[in-house]
Design brief:
115 residues; 77% helix; mainly alpha; BPS1_pln; elongated
Length: 115
């Protein structure tokens, strides 16, 4: 009489790539900054870091392979174009804030001189 062994195995979730974890961490920081009084300048800096993480993630061989697949190419290009547009808007906004800060410093300086 043959005995049968029933073996169970567990499936553990695969480990995420460190860049994937970085992107998720940065997204969480940005989400939490929405509920705090973090300055717009710092939020834009966080967004810049997020885009840099995403760019690094997109340079991975598996990402490149997926993006080169014809089935995914059109959607990926649309998302990337929107992403570049958003990055340009953020860069311009950051420049405007920097310019505003300089103007305010000049205004404060001139007001101090008048006293």
């Amino acid at each position: 009489m043959a005995t049968t062994c029933h073996v169970r195995s567990i499936s553990l979730p695969s480990r995420s790539h460190p860049l994937n974890v970085s992107v998720e961490d940065q997204l969480e920081r940005l989400r939490s900054s929405q509920t705090t009084s973090t300055s717009a300048y710092h939020k834009l800096s966080g967004l810049k870091v997020l885009y840099e993480c995403v760019d690094d993630f997109l340079q991975l061989p598996l990402s490149q392979q997926t993006l080169s697949n014809e089935q995914h190419r059109e959607g990926a290009e649309e998302v990337l174009n929107g992403s570049f547009l958003m990055l340009d808007v953020c860069s311009t906004t950051r420049d405007v804030f920097s310019s505003m800060r300089e103007c305010l410093q000049q205004l404060e300086s001139s007001l101090r001189r008048r006293k």
